[in-house]
Write a structure and sequence with these properties.
519 residues, alpha+beta, Rhopdopsin 7-helix transmembrane proteins, Phosphatase 2c, domain 1, 2 domains, 5-stranded antiparallel beta sheet, 12 helices, rod-shaped
């Protein structure tokens, strides 16, 4: 439908709506029985339409009390309550009251009530179709209240002023509804149908007043039937909107319940996984040696810091009957459950093959065993170091170098051994390096998590800095050296969490024959 045509149609309908009589008096002459029947009919119409609008007004007031967010119900109920009182006063003054004082009283009462019906009807329409009340509404209120003062003081002489302003209000309502229809606002056609019905019966009354047509079925005041149609249309719209709002609330509540349930299930699953991870972590830690302080002449400290609940680093030791100490330190690819599984496998192999006299042979056995398990892209870097009679023998499969700080000079020597991690495609050519140890010397074994530690500027610590840190801490005990390394790592990371596990094994050759301080 063309926008201009819709607006003109509504304007034509409302231009035909009847207005109240501006004043004067009338005399009815006829048989007494006919006069009584007419009076009873007017009383019946008064009671019916007043009860009708009052019932709808109270109903929507109750709906507003149950749903305060629905402002449309509030303004609609206030509009109907004012209209109920206005209908009562209008019929009372025009048809029922007989003495001049009563007629004038109800006429003035009607004039005092009718402006508020226009104000709250317009406010209801705004509440239905606008999120915020438009800026023109206060102007309509001020004008209507000004007219209210005038027609309250002069209920007969200046009622036409209200008629003109009320026409402007009705045209504004027509505009809002028309725009809503053109914008395909849901349910706008219901209110439009109500106003069309009101306009139809208003046009009927106008034709009767002009003498153009005779009453149909003795209906001489059809305006109130049109009003009843408008009241029903407004109520249907609000009830429909209320029902849809209730459905939206139910869907929202159901969604919240589902989200709450999903969150609770996720929290329960996270707790379960956390408990499982913690149990696995405790199991892994139980497999690692906690302290080694009963070997004369050696001060030894182990330390591991996992990046996740389950680390992929590994350290262990075995002590042969001839006094040879073999230390193993390893690093599985990644971390988490898979890395923890690889650690468990390697620990089992280390225990079952100790004492280890052939390090390359042990690496080859481990590599073949891991390959046969078909663990996919899961590898294990591993280093073995044996100390016997102050001689160090080392071999490595993909591990960082061994650092030896000489106690006499403070210089740091590096033993780098090439070799692929266990489980890879190549498992041969593992190198063996040896070095003499003297009192005061310190040996540092570590995983690559420490030299590959990044700071908040995404700079890597790297091996030269590790060597310098180790050199400056060489005079301390094994435990003190580990603490110094850890503090240096914390300072370097500057709050950035580690990406990989960090493991240290520090062995210091004591200058006396006492036992190790342990860690």
């Amino acid at each position: 439908m063309n926008k201009t045509a819709v607006i003109l149609l509504f304007g034509l309908i409302f231009s035909l709506m009847p207005v109240d009589d501006p004043g004067g008096f009338f005399i009815n002459l006829g048989p007494a029985q006919q006069m009584i029947e007419s009076l009873l009919q007017q009383r019946s119409e008064q009671m019916f339409f007043c009860a009708f609008t009052l019932a709808f007004g109270l109903l929507h007031l109750i709906l507003f009390l149950f749903s305060p967010a629905s402002k449309g119900n509030l303004y609609y109920s206030i509009f109907l309550l004012f209209y109920t009182a206005a209908i009562f006063a209008d019929i009372q003054s025009g048809y029922i009251a007989r003495d001049p004082e009563s007629i004038f009283f109800y006429l003035r009462l009607h004039r005092m009530l009718i402006p508020f019906t226009s104000i709250f009807c317009l406010r209801f329409i705004y509440a239905v179709f606008y999120d915020k009340c438009p800026r023109q509404f206060p102007a309509f209120v001020i004008l209507m209240l000004s007219v209210w003062v005038v027609i309250s003081l002069y209920p007969v002489e200046h009622f036409d002023v209200f008629v003109i302003l009320n026409l402007l209000v009705q045209l504004e309502i027509v505009r809002v509804i028309t725009v809503a229809i053109l914008r395909k606002k849901d349910g706008a056609w219901i209110l439009a149908a109500g106003y069309l019905l009101l306009g139809f019966f208003g046009a009927y009354d106008t034709l009767l007043d002009l003498g153009i047509m005779a009453p149909l079925n003795q209906v001489t005041n059809a305006y109130y039937f049109g009003l009843a149609g408008l009241v029903v249309a407004m109520s249907v719209y609000l009830a429909r909107d209320f029902a849809r709002s209730a459905q939206r609330l139910l869907r929202q509540e159901r969604r919240i319940q589902e989200e709450t349930l999903a969150r609770e299930l996720a929290e329960a699953e996270n707790r379960r996984k956390t408990e499982e991870f913690e149990a696995a972590r405790q199991l892994q830690l139980s497999m690692l040696p906690q302290c080694l302080n009963d070997i004369p002449g050696l001060d030894i400290c182990f330390h591991m810091e996992s990046a996740t609940e389950i680390g992929g680093d590994y350290y262990d030791y075995s002590l042969a009957d001839d006094g040879a100490l073999t230390i193993a330190i390893g690093d599985a690819t990644g971390h988490g459950m898979k890395a923890g599984t690889m650690v468990s496998i390697v620990k089992g192999l280390f225990i079952t093959h100790s004492p280890i006299t052939d390090m390359p042979g042990f690496f080859r056995k481990c590599a073949r065993a891991i390959k046969q398990m078909r663990l996919g892209n899961l590898y294990m870097a591993l280093m073995l170091v044996t100390i016997k009679d102050r001689e160090l023998t080392a071999s490595a499969a993909g591990m960082p170098p061994v650092y030896i700080r000489r106690g006499k000079t403070g210089a740091v020597e590096t033993l780098l051994m090439k070799g692929m991690p266990l489980g890879g495609p190549l498992f041969d050519n593992y190198q063996v390096r040896k070095a003499k140890l003297f009192p005061g010397d310190t040996v540092l074994l570590m995983s690559d998590g420490f030299p590959e530690l990044f700071n908040d500027q995404k700079e890597m610590l790297d091996y030269p800095r590790v060597e310098a840190i180790f050199r400056e801490a060489g005079e301390k005990s094994a435990t003190g050296i580990v603490r110094h390394l850890c503090d240096a790592g914390i300072k370097w990371a500057n709050g950035r969490p580690p990406d990989d596990d960090i493991t240290f094994v520090v062995v210091k050759i004591r200058t006396d024959s006492g036992l190790s301080d342990g860690c």
